[in-house]
Amino acid sequence: MDSLPKRDANYVPLSPITFLQRAASVYADRTSLVYGNTIFTWRQTYERCCRLAAALQQLGVMKKDVVSVLAPNTPALYEMHFAVPMAGAVLNAINTRLDATAAAGIIKHADPKLLFVDYQYMCLATESLRDGEAAGSISPLLVVIDDLNKPEETRIGELHYEQLVERGDPEQRPPRSVDDEWDAITLNYTSGTTSSALKGVVYSHRGAYLSTVGLLLQWGVGSEPVYLWSLPMFHCNGWTLTWGVAARGGVNVCIRTPAADDMYAALSAHGVTHMCGAPVLLNILVEARREPLLHAVEVLTGGAPPPAALLERVERLGFNVTHAYGMTEATGSAMVCEWRERWNALPTSTRARLKARQGVSALSLADAAVVNNIDTMQSVPRDGTALGEIMLRGNSIMKEYYKDTAATASAFRGGWFLTGDVGVVHPDGYVEIKDRSKDVIISGGENISSVDVEMALYQHHAVREAAVVAMPHPHWGETPCAFVALEPGFSCLGEVTEEDIILFCRDKMPHFMVPRKVVFVDKLPTNSTGKVRKIELRQRLHGCSQSAPGDSRPGSALAGKARL
Ligand code: ADP
After folding, report:
1. Which of 300, 421, 527 to mutate to test ligand 1, by most ligand atoms within 8 A of the CB atom?
2. For residue 87, is it within any domain?
3. Section 431-446 average pLDDT
4. Does the residue 435 lie in any domain?
5. How large a percentage of the chain has pLDDT more than 70?
6. Is the pLDDT of residue 195 over 70?
7. For the residues 141-150, what does the mean pLDDT come to?
8. What's the pLDDT tens digit per position in 321-356?
9. Residue 521 in contact with residue 485, Cβ under 8 Å?
10. How many whole angstroms separate alpha carbon 161 and alpha carbon 18?
11. Which among 550, 564, 484, 561 has a CA at the least distance from the CA of 193?
12. Ligand 1 touching residue 128 (CB < 6 A)
């Protein structure tokens, strides 16, 4: 067949902002968003986004400018996921759990033209801007986001979000498509568990579109879902579901914080069908409730390995869990543990173990591999034991690290993106993560997966949280040390001792994997996205505040730490 030229009609740049135009036309009168007493329809959401985009342009925001926002899961943050790129600019949603120094670092690096700040985060923003000004940066123009549910109480500052929405010309519709699907749509900073260096991950319109569609398919999201915003939108743009809910004409139920009471109230008040969160969120759900839900809720979890025991407990409550693995650089999910019909007949604990695996490649990827040598790209055998580094390639991988060509170059090798995660492939082709490369413990030349030891610890009835890190050893080089937080009602002074935990592990694993030391803590240190800060645990062991071994993600993870 002759090759014909691409035409405007059949070659339209991909962008998730088209989902909003479609939702406004298909689901015009259906609720788009609920936030306390505030309710919008898709027609209204589209109009508000058009107005805001027009107002941004009036303020001089130009193509490729960065617009930052510091806000919890509110209507404004949702709308900005469309309005900012509709104005041609790049959205940078900043993690609200950061301290002023960390937020100032991001603002300095992203250098936004405008900074939108939720009224509750004004102190954090002004402190961050003060830090930035002291370091010689020019502050962006500040726009205050008042609370739509109580605007009169929160009117502070000069320029307000709602003023911009009112000011924008509703007739000024955005162009029907973006000029170039490879243009940047968002800038997301990684959560920083692997390195203290700032990594600003740039997504393209194309990558965002494909990731969104792929995740909707793999999670099986049908039309008109009711989606609870328990996952922060600032985390990889809510794992792309900011755009995804519009694509399915769903209802966005916005809550400011994922407190157990607020989540359970929203579940029953709005008939929530879908929600997301890291395993720490599953813990919150389990700890707050004993009786099963009245209707099943689909939960997508990821961001850290979910212990099988936790999956079992949360499913008993009526949550149907889908497990995904991902990272900022992969635009959210990179693998999904796709559920197989034949597994339904298996015993509960086996099902939970299968579900705790990270799974198979995301639909938006062209390929995923687990290799034991990144130079020869030799894949590990499908035996569930041989360790290798997970490599990804496909359209959902980030464009680049913002303003960091060296880091970008070292993240890619031979047409692949290096994840820095170490895993095995099971005979059925499903991947299971065993560690981050820098967290692998090497004891007398043997690799020990800290995740394997943690999963065994979670089987102990009194263990609520567990993290295992390498501890220097004069003979073996490294040995595992476990940090354990006990369930309420248990104490390390009485019911559960270090020796009990060690004896428990001896029953479950080979001798060399058993923790030599157990440190009891009230709570494990976690970062702003709920991941355990193993860097900090290693620092505690080393008794210093400077970086401990492994305190950076090397260009090639395998070359960096794990010798596989
Ligand atoms: P950071 O690398 O700064 O923590 P990210 O939030 O992008 O930032 O974290 C991505 C990392 O989280 C992955 O590389 C992986 O180590 C871990 N991770 C994500 N999902 C899972 C999962 N389902 N199971 C195990 N680890 C996971």
Report:
1. 421
2. no
3. 88
4. no
5. 93
6. no
7. 90
8. 999 999 999 999 999 999 999 999 999 999 999 999
9. yes
10. 23
11. 550
12. no
The whole-number average pLDDT for the span 186-212 is 88
Residue with the smallest CA separation from ligand 1 atom 4 is 193
Show the tokens assigned to 141: 């123009």
Burial per residue of 321-346, b for 16 or more beta-carbon CB atoms within 10 angstroms, e otherwise: bbbbbbbbbbbbbbbbbbbeeeeeee
Task: Tell me, yes or no, whether 356 lies in a domain.
Answer: no
CA dihedral 15, 17, 19, 23 (to 10 degrees): -160
Instruction: Indicate if ligand 1 lies below 6 Å from the C-beta of 535.
Output: no
Q: What mean pLDDT comes out for the span 372-397?
A: 94
Whole-number Å distance, alpha carbon 295 to ligand 1 midpoint, is 30
The yes-or-no verdict on residue 528 having pLDDT over 90 is no
Q: What are the tens digits of pLDDT across the range 286-303?
A: 999 889 999 999 999 999
Helix axes 450-457, 498-508, angle to 10 degrees: 110
CA distance linking residue 474 with residue 362, whole number of Å: 43
* Rounded Cα–Cα distance for residues 161 and 316 (Å): 43
**Phi, psi (degrees; rounded to nearest 5) at 93:** -90, 120
CATH code of the domain containing 533: 3.30.300.30
Q: What letters, b where the CB count within 10 A reaches 16 and e where it falls short, cover 371-384?
A: bbebeeeeebeeee
Number of domains making up the chain: 1
Residue type, 432: E
Q: Which domain holds residue 518?
A: 447-540
- Report the atom number in ligand 1 closest to the C-alpha of 199: 3
Residue 552, CA distances (Å) to 161, 198, 437 in order = 39, 11, 10
With respect to residue 476, please indicate whether it lies within any of the assigned structural domains: yes
Q: Quick check: 545 pLDDT over 90?
A: no
State the Cα torsion 264-268-272-278 to the nearest 10°: 10
Residue 395: the pLDDT is 94
- pLDDT exceeds 80 at position 497: yes
